[in-house]
Amino acid sequence: MNPELRRNLWLELSAHRLLATPALIGLVSMLILVNSDGRGYAALATVAGFACLVLLTAWGSKMAADGIGDEARNRTWDAQRLTSIGPWQMTWGKLAGATAFAWYGGGLCLLVFIAAGVGQLPMPVLRLAGLIVAGSVLCHAVAFTGSLMAAQRNPGTRSSNALVWMFVLLSVASSARRWLAVDQGTVAWWGASYATVNFVLVSAVAFAAWAVFGAYRSMCSALHVPTTPWALVVFLCFVTVYLAGFTSLSNGSAAGLVAIMGVGVSLAACYGLLFMEQTGAMTLRRLQMRLNRRQWTRALQELPGWPVALLLALLFAIGTRLASIRDGGTWAIADAAFVFWLFAVRDAALMHCFAFARQPRRVVATTVLYLALLYGLLPWLLKAFGAHALADLLLPFSVEYTGPKPAAAAVQAVVAVSIAAWRWRRL
Amino acid sequence: MNSSSAIAVHKLSFEYPGVKALSEVSFSIEPASVTALVGPNGAGKSTLLRCIAGLDRPLLGSIELAGVDVLEQPRLAHRRLGYLADFYGLYDALSVRRALSYMAAAHDVAERDIAGTVERTAKRLEIDELLERRCGELSRGQRQRVALGQALVHAPPVLLLDEPAAGLDPEARHALARLFTRLHDEGMTLLVSSHILAELDEYSSHMLVLRGGQLIEHRALAGGAAEPVRRLRLGFVSPVPDLTAVIAGMNGVRMLENAGQNALLELTGNDRVQAEVLRMLVERGLPVTRFSEERENLHASYLRTVGTHGAAP
User: Strand B229-236's sheet: what is its strand order?
Assistant: First the structure.
């Protein structure tokens, strides 16, 4: 048996919990059946479904995040990293083990939901149950990965879990909303029509699989098992194609739509990774050493995710321009792609200006503060003084992406990169 | 890099922003030795141990542990390594038996062997009476032993210890020293970092001195089992005027001190060479009252090394 799973089961599934949980669920079920004014099983199924979302999805995500966070705080994480447990064993052992009680309690609720709901609720109960399971795996894996990255970036802190929790709450709220409306209507995707419940279920399973794979890759990084960033590129391309399927094909070619979607997805990933993953002077110094020695594979293994996403965004931006030329040069958005990319370069460089301090502290918080100044306060002040054109140059969003806009974005990017490079040399 | 070494470190460099924690450190540690890793605070001792254990990735350099490249195959290297950090944690809600069983399984001990391995480890560390108690209920000394048990449960050939005696009472420290001596006798290689040199003195055969992230010295301690150089204290009934000339005429012997009725020699060689030196002294009619091997304690050895290399960079 996976030792990490067994250790978690020892901690999570005590005899008391094993006996008390079904007894409690049974008593609450009886109470609902007795007091449901004739709605009986339908009311029970509804309550059981929501209980499952709360227990399995929300509580399970917290447990998954704590599976790493508690280890880091209790100083047992290093001892675990020193074992011979491989990254895959460690990942699924923790994911399944830390959430074992949530699966036990949530699983019982799910059984009640299915048993009471089939034939009683006006919705495909079994497929909804599948959706809850897939959604829970997705949330657990994302919370787990977020916690793992936070533990690597800031060992022993709780603050970074706020982002994870935000995601979990949003996911649960979204799941609950979809749970109520999922049986209605169809989804149009890449020109074809699919029943919403089927489409959401397949999507949830696919993204759950990606999330578990992402957790595994993060674990490889935490255990210093060398990997190259091909998986990130494939994932971003998958998300790009998936999201492009929802857009209308009337505005341009499919390739153009994929390309512009790729810019958006890659830049979003770049910002996310910039703030989440372990980066900074030492990471880039190791990378520099590998490059200086022409150790290309080792250099790829040292490469953080954000430059990969940034490079992919540039390739997609070039693709957008090529598609625009092929379609007669009518795409203003092709110019916008480069402007957005240049702003991302500026922001990444800005963050590294703070990361390249001799004793870097609160790099993310400081960067967020300065980004708020650059994207909010400064343009607002300029507009207040009537300098609308100048304010517009500080923001990537615009109605016009030609003329001074790209030049201004390029100047900002060059200045930020120059300052970061100067800071780097002073280290 | 010497493939027969228990630990081989080659040009290891590690940096924190603006600080070189380790600067091109190279050494190799022979099997079945106990090496005292000494140096002032901030010398890079803990960083070095963490790099060897594969917990921190160095900027440059390579590390081999019992023939396995730690940077390329960290998981395989961990099967051959036990590590006790200066700040460690235990699973407080688990019993000692379960904590040890978990670590045994996590280090690929076969399922059928785990129970026996746990019993043996507990007996070796004298914690067999604590097996059913929860880790959270144990005293500091007992927790230290359980943590050490977790590091040893898979019988690794190499054990790294970072300040293992910190916070322990004298009795527990003595017990720990006895344990390390026993492990050494069983053929295990130990690399121990500590500020308490007197404690290291009890069981160390080698000394590795770090200062400002640089390796100052790595050598066998005088009197250590593997050391071909030994120090001999001589005593005479009365001062010997031509002692320096007599000693200068002997092969493999060097005068370190001459205080009239007392002298300190450095001898390169084995017991046979030592016996030959004694024979020559007696044959020349010197009134020898004392001829004994003197082991330089670690404290003195460390101070001598630091004195030779001057102030910290």
Answer: B253-258, B262-268, B229-236, B288-293
